[in-house]
Design brief:
By secondary structure, the chain is an alpha/beta fold. Helix content is 39%, strand content 14%.
């Protein structure tokens, strides 16, 4: 038994050799490797995905440490995709990891060959860029999965999966639907990970101002987040890919 067979022997035991082979052959592109996307990437590689492209323009900030896989006190200031790629290759040195330090938006969209991937995963937290990716990804033949908002949540038992138009209790999903209804709708249906829990920030405005300074944040709204929520969102996205391959 070679190292790859040994590494994924427990996976193969559960799903069978044919499914394990398909997992190793598919190509996946993941947009956003923050609190949700970073854990999704790790889960994909540990599940046997060998062709993964990760896309994110950000560097690690100290405020990322509470929830993002690449963020440690040693990686502050480093590109998230570079840190994550190094970790993923430590897990499986034979994986083909393409790390792209670039933002996805309307100006850069054409530089990504979405159709060359069987699976497209959205873990972007910008409303405008997320909507653009959804619009573009649903025009391809690729299978597309998206994460809705993971902030302001604390109860992991409320994390669930639904088709985009049936997602409830999520302000991000509601904002996306309003945006699409004013313009062009997504070309096909797709599954989303979401949590219908609705909480409010309990921290004060001074703490929020400190976060803006530390992150040099361009976000219109900064909300509190917890790793056990963002990680489960990411793991669930990866699970959707693996389930789809195995079915």
């Amino acid at each position: 038994m070679d190292s790859q067979e040994s590494m994924f022997s427990r996976t193969t035991l559960l799903i069978g050799g044919e499914a394990a082979k398909r997992i190793a052959e598919v190509r996946v592109i993941l947009f956003g490797v923050g609190g949700v996307g970073s854990w999704c990437a790790e889960s994909l590689i540990r599940s046997g995905i060998r062709h993964l492209t990760i896309v994110d323009s950000d560097i690690v900030q100290i405020t990322n440490i509470n929830r993002q896989l690449p963020a440690t006190t040693r990686t502050i200031g480093h590109a998230k995709v570079a840190v994550l790629k190094a970790r993923l290759l430590e897990i499986n040195p034979e994986a083909q990891i393409t790390a792209i330090q670039k933002i996805y938006n309307s100006e850069t969209a054409d530089s990504f060959d979405l159709s060359s991937h069987q699976y497209i995963i959205d873990a972007i937290d910008s409303l405008e860029n997320k909507a653009h990716l959804i619009f573009k990804a649903t025009q391809t033949q690729s299978t597309f999965f998206s994460s809705m908002g993971a902030a302001l949540k604390i109860n992991p038992s409320k994390i669930q999966v639904a088709e985009f138009w049936k997602v409830s209790g999520c302000s991000l999903a509601a904002a996306l639907r309003r945006k699409f209804k004013k313009g062009t709708l997504p070309a096909k249906k797709f599954l989303c990970v979401f949590n219908d829990e609705v909480l409010k920030n309990k921290g004060n405005q001074e703490n929020k101002s400190k976060i803006v300074v530390l992150e040099n944040s361009r976000k219109a709204q900064i909300n509190g987040t917890l790793v056990h929520i963002t990680a489960i969102f990411g793991f669930t996205l990866a699970g959707l890919v693996i389930q789809d391959i195995c079915k």
